Every structure is written in C-alpha cells, then in structure tokens.
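ok new one. same drill as before - structure tokens go in, u give me an amino acid for every spot. 931 of them this time. try not to just spam alanines like last time pls lmao
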C-alpha cells in the first residue's frame, strides 16, 4: 500500500468510525482500508475463534502490525545483513516490536494484517519472521520513495512472493559457480604471474561476474539484444575476459608488452582502460551484442558516453525501441557519491532528447575510496542516495551472497524492461588490496584490512554453501579450479610465444565503410557545393511558415527576411547559411542532431530552428518539413549541463558516424565545464583507443566587451591539444565557409571532431553574408586571401582569424590603405601553412607578416603558431594582440574599447583615434545581450 495515512489512527473511536463506513460502502474508504477490512472480515469468517471480536481495540492492534509491516518495507534496508566484513552502523529507531506498540506477548496472536504480505491471517511471530527474511537478510530494498502505487505494488509483490530468496535450479547454481570460479581464479592467476603489475583487481567483488552473466541471460530472455557497458578500471580486466570474452591470451600478451608496435601511429593506453565489443550466445541460443566503452581514469566520465551510445543505437539500429538495448553503468562507491557528472547524467534519464529506457547501475561498494573512509566520502547514508532523484529503486546486496546478487540483478532487469526507469544495485563488498596491488591499505585502514585478510573469497563461501546444501562435492570444486587454472596457464604460454598482438585498425558495423585519415587527406578539401536549383528550393522551404497558423510578429518578420534571401536577394546571413547546411544534409539522407543549452532558439536569438505559435505551446520546426524523403532532424534544448551532455553527444557520434551530431555551448567558454571530455575523449581517443568520432562542437567566441566569461572560447586550449591530425579547428568568417565546413564532415571517408568557434556580433553584421554562388560553387576554404589590394603595393601582411577580420577590414577601407593586406586563416588546425606560405609569396614587396588576434598574447592561436612557424617562411612573424593576461578579457567596456582600438591602430601603424574606438564599439551593439 502506497498511501498509509490510515495507520495514524490513535483512538478506537477513529478506527471504529472508518470500519462502520466500510460496512455501509466499501468504496467510501481508502483502498488501503478496504484491503485491511477485507482481510479482517475474511479472517473472522474463516476462523472466528482465531481472532478476538472486532473491537476497536483489536483494530488498533491490527493497525500496529500494519505499521510494523510498513516499517520493514520502508526501513528494513537499514537493518540488513549486507556488509560482508564488518558490522553495519546502528540506526534508530529500530524495528523492535516495542517501537510499534507491540510486545512479545503478542507473538502468538493471529493478526489479519498478514493479508498485506500475502500470507493471510497469521501469528505475529510468523509475520515478523516473514518480514525479516524478506527485508533484512542479504538484500536491503530501498524503494518506498517511489511515488507510483503500481510500481510500489509490483516491487513488493515480486519480493514478498518469494521472500527475496533465490530458488535456482542445480544447473543455474553450477553456472553461477562456474563464473564465480573464473572471476576468482583469473585474479589469483594474474596476481601470481604478473606480480607487481597494476591490474586493479576485482578481488572482494568477484560476484559481479556471475551477476553480469546472469543479467545478459535474463535480458536476452525478455527482449534485450544489446548491452552497452561503462565502468572504471577496477575489475575491468575480469569483465573483459569473463564477460566480454576477450581472449585470455590477448590479455596476457598485453601484460607481456606484446601489444606495442614501433610502426604504429597510436600511443595506446593501459590495458585496464581499453574497450571491447563482441557477440555472445546465451544458454537459450539468443545472440546478444556487448559493447564495453573505453574509459579514462577520470571516474564516471564514461557515463554520459555510454548513454549517448545507447541512445544513438536506439535511434538508428532499433527504430526507437529502447526495450531492445540497455545501458549498464558500473560505479565505485566513492565516485558515485562524489562525482557531479553522476547527477548530470542521471538527470537525463527522463528527458526526451536523452532518455534510454532506463539504466542498470551497479555499484562496487568497497566501503573506501583511494584511502578515504566512507564516512569522509559522503554526507548521505548510502552512496546510492542519488537514485532518489529519479525515484529509482535501490537494492543493497551482500557481495558475499552471490545468489542474492544474481537474484537482485535479474529483478532489476525485469523492472527496467517493465517501467523503463533506472535501477541501482549497491554491492556491499571490499577491496582485498589497496587502490592498486602495490598500494598498502593498512596505512589508513588497519582494522578493516585485518578483517579482510582473514576473510574467505566469495567463491569459497559459495562452495561451502553448495556442499552444505548437498549440491556439490568438495572434490568437484577443486577439480573445477584446477581445470580452469590449467587453461589460463596454456593461454599464458601461447602469449609468451607471440612477437606482437598489434593489429591494423579495421572499422566494422556502422563504421565499416570508413577508414582512419592520413596527412594527405587534409591538403585539399572536397567539393561540398550544392546545385543552385536544389539550394534555392531548400532555402524557400526553411524560410516559409505554414499558412493558417499565427506566429509572434517578430518571428513572422524574421522569416519574411529569410524568405527574401531565398527568393530575391540571394545573399544569405549566418543563420541561413547554417540552416541550409543542415537542410542539404537532411535532404541527402543524413540525420542531424543538435543539442545544447537553448539551441532551439539560439543563445543570441539567431537560429529559431523551432518556433512556437503565438497563442499555444504548438511548435513548428522548418527543418523537419523539407520533404517526405528527408532524414530526421532532432534538436533538443539540454538541461544546464556541459560535462554530461557533451559526453552524451560524443557517445552518440561514436556509435554512428552517419549522422551529423552537434553540441553547442551557450557561450564558448562554458565548454570548460566539460574539459575532461575534451581532453580524454575528443582530443585523444583515436590515439589511445583507435576510436574515431565526427562530433561537431559550436563554441561562440569573440571579444565584444562582454567581460571575462563571455568573450573567449579558449582557442589556446584546443590548439595545445592538436597533433597527429586528431581534430579540425575552424574560426570561419563567412556563412558560406561555415556551410562548407559542416558539409565537409560527410564528404570524406573518415571522421574527425570539428571544433567551430562561432560568431556572436557577426550574426548581425551587414558584411558577414555570402552570395549564392559561394554555396553552389567550390568547397571549404582553409585560407582566404585579400581581394581588396594589389599584391605589388602591399608592404605588410596581416594574418588573422574570426571576427577581428571585419574590424581590420573596416579600418583598411576607411583609411583607403592598400599597403596592408588582410589574410584570413579559416582553419586553425590542421594548420594550412603551405597555403599561407603560397599566399604570402604573392606579396613580393611585403616586409613583414604579422598575426593579429583579439585574445591576450598568451592565449588564442598565437602560442601554437609561434611554435609551429619557427622553421617556416613565418619564422620572423610578430603578433599584435592584447597584453598577456591571467584573465581572458576586461570586464570594463571602456577598457575593452581602448584595447581593441590599440589592436586596430597598431595593425596599420596609425595613432589610436576615436575612429578605432567606434569600430570596436560597433560589435558590442550587435551582440544579443544574454547573461
């Protein structure tokens, strides 16, 4: 019963009045009272001598028993036998009878409240025994915070119908033992054969392996065809070997250092970070695909990536059916409680753009962080208390009771499939060694580790249980261990014979038609033009609002202006250039997904990809109304998260390279909230794990006097990560070049992340437009030369990127200065040095080349260019910029204008005048001021 308000009756008169109402009309009282009185009357009718007369006093006793039942359901998890190595903390009040106004004298009394737990009228002693067995043994169920009565009833029925007690067949028990033996023996073998090498063993939590094995079997039986798994390093090798079926030989070869090749361009990663995918066949003959996502040491970072991969597969592979694939996230107790990314990702669980149909969360609860005691690691009672955010049930399980864990994860799988919600399993276990095998845990937890030293492993505990049940002979258990250890030794011998296990990368699945890039691929951009008739037709469609619907007047005016671009002027601004890029790809069958904070409208009110009717909540999305044959266009305003959402979109793009996946930051510098994703995945995944990705990041950037937090998207941070052709970094100055940069993502046989520093003031700059022929002819231009000067007259060449170009251009034109050329470097990486040199050589009379940027000297692209141009024609290149600074920009509008005016004047070697300040101030007025 979810609503137990009736349990608060304090007087006989109160209870009696409800009973009298029930006798007249059962439907006139709450459902809980109905069931109680049904049971009461049934008990009296079946055996009137078993209970006293229906006095109000007896009602109150019955209510007390109902309170007891509810107490066990609600708080029984606090009094379980779930800690394998030490006593649990004590909680008050306890579940003693006295706390429910009952006593030992009532133990032989029969109470009809037993109806509530499915055993009918029963003695209080039997009711208590039932409740203890169900709620206070190896499984602690924490679920009463769930607000849906149906869900509560389902959970209670599932648990109480079997008293949370597994009842596995002999074959199932042998399967559990087999997987448990593999887990324990594998760790023991590694520990003896590779002494001193880090492996972050699973020892103490080996029951995880039979649990994962069982959830795959259970999931497959109820419709799951694929699992996407994310986990940290602890236990990863065991999961790779005994769940993912990566061969023991390959793992041993990695320990032997055989995975390295001097000819490989890849840097690789430690063996306990690597991902893997495989197909397994269940006992019932069902095929299940398993993906273990690669992960860095940054705990929980992988969560968003896993969810994004899962959602991508739901959208592309399973036609939107999330009952055919499920994510599994394996956490640590310290990290699930301490890392904010967990909260960011969990908040996605019910959001339309990010939900995956429920995640199974497993927590390897070692009861300690690196060296930090659990009491110092969180304020909450449990490390899993974050589950309450999404009303997700939690099962706390003794990690030494492998059958209880297998039972619990099977129940969790059923729950996920039925209710499409997250579910948590908190595996109370221990870490046999320190943080790694060379670490000494007794420095910080001497008492705990004295207990752990004497504690038997889960396999030996289970063998003892099975022998006690008469289900196993001791000799058979020893044979099982010896046989498996012999297999491991054979694989180790084979691994030692290998010279190398390095294999060339070959993409498969959705990536089968793609390859890794090489240096030659970046010398020339491919043709990304679109036929004139096609482009104009698309432009008309995305700029036309449906008839008969009333929109906000400003929206109608904006779309009328866009339609004019498509129909008459054929000159397009940034917003139209962007949407035409998406629309042409959609028409070519490429799905487009745009996600981030406020992306539907756009932070600076320029995009309006989704428009809302004036007098309703109805929305219209032009890019979804191109034709019946177009690919889907998905645009989602994300919750206020960078770290979680960027990880999600990276995972989405990783699972499918045939969709344009875009994440936009509200302001460019906000990406640094997701710096870990940039560093550990976007920049380095291909080098570490040979995993390509085509994610696009849009980062608004430009100095318009908005202060330190709304000016710079930190170009320098991306540039310092650039190497090995790992990504593309652009700072486009025209809508057409941005159009081609986006379309270029699909016109090559490989995928690379694309980082675009997008404009703010340029969104409304009258000069920042492109003519029709710039879209219908040609391709992306890495460098754009100055067409306003004669090469022979030029004495100085300014190289720049982004918004500063238009301010330099305005000064050049106003001063009628033909001695200074302005060259735009549209692609910062891979840096087009050859093209830059070719253009520079045209200016034979130029005495100097100068890099001009708005950013301070220690930021922006200059530090990278200074390093890369040392042995080129630009070795003497100087820089004009703001002075070096620890902050990106000034917070004072006047100082901003003065600094910008200095850059302009210095670029042309003229005195600073009010004219330069006016030019600088223009960009400020063009920014839609949102903060």
């Amino acid at each position: 019963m979810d609503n137990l308000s009736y349990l608060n009756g304090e007087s006989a008169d109160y209870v009696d009045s409800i009973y009298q109402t029930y006798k007249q009309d059962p439907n006139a009282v709450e459902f809980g009272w109905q069931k109680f009185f049904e049971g009461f009357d049934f008990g009296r009718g079946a055996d009137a001598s078993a209970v006293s007369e229906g006095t109000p006093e007896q009602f109150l006793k019955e209510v007390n028993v109902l309170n007891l039942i509810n107490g066990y359901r609600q708080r029984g998890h606090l009094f379980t036998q779930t800690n394998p190595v030490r006593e649990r903390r004590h909680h008050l009040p306890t579940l003693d009878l006295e706390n429910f106004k009952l006593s030992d004298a009532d133990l032989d009394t029969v109470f009809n409240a037993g109806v509530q737990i499915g055993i009918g009228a029963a003695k209080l002693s039997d009711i208590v025994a039932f409740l203890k067995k169900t709620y206070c043994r190896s499984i602690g169920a924490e679920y009463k915070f769930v607000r849906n009565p149906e869900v509560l009833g389902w959970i209670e029925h599932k648990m109480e119908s079997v008293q949370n007690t597994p009842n596995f067949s002999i074959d199932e028990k042998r399967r559990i033992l087999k997987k448990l033996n593999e887990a324990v023996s594998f760790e023991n073998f590694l520990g003896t054969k590779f002494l001193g090498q880090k492996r972050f063993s699973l020892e103490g939590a080996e029951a995880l392996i039979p649990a994962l094995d069982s959830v795959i079997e259970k999931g497959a039986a109820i419709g799951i065809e694929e699992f996407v798994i994310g986990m940290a390093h602890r236990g990863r090798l065991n999961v790779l070997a005994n769940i993912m079926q990566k061969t023991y030989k390959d793992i041993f070869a990695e320990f032997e250092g055989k995975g390295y090749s001097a000819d490989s361009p890849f840097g690789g990663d430690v063996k306990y970070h690597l991902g893997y995918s495989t197909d397994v066949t269940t006992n019932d003959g069902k095929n299940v695909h398993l993906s273990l996502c690669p992960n860095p040491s940054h705990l929980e970072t992988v969560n968003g990536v896993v969810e994004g991969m899962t959602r991508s597969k739901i959208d592309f592979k399973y036609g939107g059916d999330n009952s055919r694939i499920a994510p599994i996230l394996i956490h640590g107790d310290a990290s699930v409680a301490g890392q904010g990314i967990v909260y960011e990702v969990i908040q996605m669980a019910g959001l339309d753009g990010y939900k995956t149909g429920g995640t199974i969360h497993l927590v390897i609860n070692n009861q300690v962080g690196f060296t930090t005691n659990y009491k110092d690691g969180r304020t909450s009672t449990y490390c899993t208390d974050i589950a309450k955010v999404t009303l997700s049930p939690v099962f706390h399980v003794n990690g030494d009771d492998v059958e209880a864990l297998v039972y619990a994860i099977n129940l969790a799988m059923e729950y996920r499939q039925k209710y499409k919600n997250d579910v948590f399993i908190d595996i109370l276990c221990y870490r046999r060694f320190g943080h790694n095998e060379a670490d000494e845990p007794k420095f910080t937890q001497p008492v705990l580790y004295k207990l752990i030293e004497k504690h038997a492993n889960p396999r030996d505990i289970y063998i003892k249980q099975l022998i006690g049940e008469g289900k196993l002979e001791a000799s058979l258990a020893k044979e099982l261990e010896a046989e498996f250890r012999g297999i491991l030794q054979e694989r180790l011998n084979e691994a030692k014979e290998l010279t190398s296990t390095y294999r060339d990368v070959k993409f498969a699945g959705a990536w089968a038609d793609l390859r890794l890039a090489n240096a030659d691929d970046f010398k020339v951009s491919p043709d990304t033009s679109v036929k004139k008739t096609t482009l104009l037709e698309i432009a008309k469609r995305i700029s036309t609002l449906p008839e008969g619907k009333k929109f906000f007047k400003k929206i109608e005016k904006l779309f009328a202006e866009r339609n004019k671009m498509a129909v008459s002027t054929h000159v397009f601004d940034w917003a139209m250039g962007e949407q035409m890029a998406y629309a042409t790809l959609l028409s070519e069958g490429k799905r487009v997904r745009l996600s981030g904070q406020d992306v539907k409208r756009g932070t600076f009110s320029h995009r309006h990809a989704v428009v809302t009717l004036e007098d309703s909540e109805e929305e219209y999305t032009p890019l979804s109304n191109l034709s019946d044959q177009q690919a889907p266009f998905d645009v989602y305003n994300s919750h206020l998260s960078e770290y979680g959402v960027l990880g999600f979109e990276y995972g989405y793009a990783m699972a499918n390279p045939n969709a344009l996946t875009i994440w936009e930051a509200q302001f460019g510098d906000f990406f640094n909230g997701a710096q870990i994703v940039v560093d550990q995945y976007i920049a380095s995944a291909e080098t570490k794990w040979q995993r390509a990705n085509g994610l696009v990041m849009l980062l608004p950037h430009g100095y318009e006097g908005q202060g330190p937090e709304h000016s710079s998207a930190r170009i320098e941070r991306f540039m310092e990560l650039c190497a090995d052709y790992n990504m593309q970094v652009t700072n486009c100055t025209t809508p057409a070049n941005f159009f081609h940069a986006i379309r270029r993502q699909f016109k090559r046989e490989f995928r690379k992340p694309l980082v675009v520093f997008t404009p703010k003031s340029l969104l409304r700059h009258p000069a920042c437009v492109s003519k029709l022929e710039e879209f219908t002819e040609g391709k992306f231009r890495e460098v754009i030369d100055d067409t306003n000067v004669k090469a022979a007259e030029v004495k100085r060449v300014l190289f720049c990127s982004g918004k500063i170009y238009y301010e330099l251009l305005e000064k050049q034109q106003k001063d009628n200065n033909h001695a200074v050329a302005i060259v735009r470097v549209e692609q910062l990486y891979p840096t087009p040095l050859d093209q830059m040199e070719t253009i520079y050589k045209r200016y034979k009379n130029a005495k100097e080349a100068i890099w001009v940027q708005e950013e301070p000297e220690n930021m922006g692209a200059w530090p990278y260019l200074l390093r890369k141009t040392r042995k080129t024609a630009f070795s003497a290149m100087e820089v004009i910029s703001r002075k070096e600074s620890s902050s990106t920009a000034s917070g004072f509008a006047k100082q901003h204008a003065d600094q910008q005016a200095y850059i302009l004047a210095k670029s042309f070697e003229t005195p600073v005048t009010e004219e330069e300040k006016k030019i600088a101030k223009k960009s400020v007025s063009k920014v839609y001021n949102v903060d």
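The first helix runs from residue 12 to 24. and btw The first strand starts at residue 110 and ends at 111.
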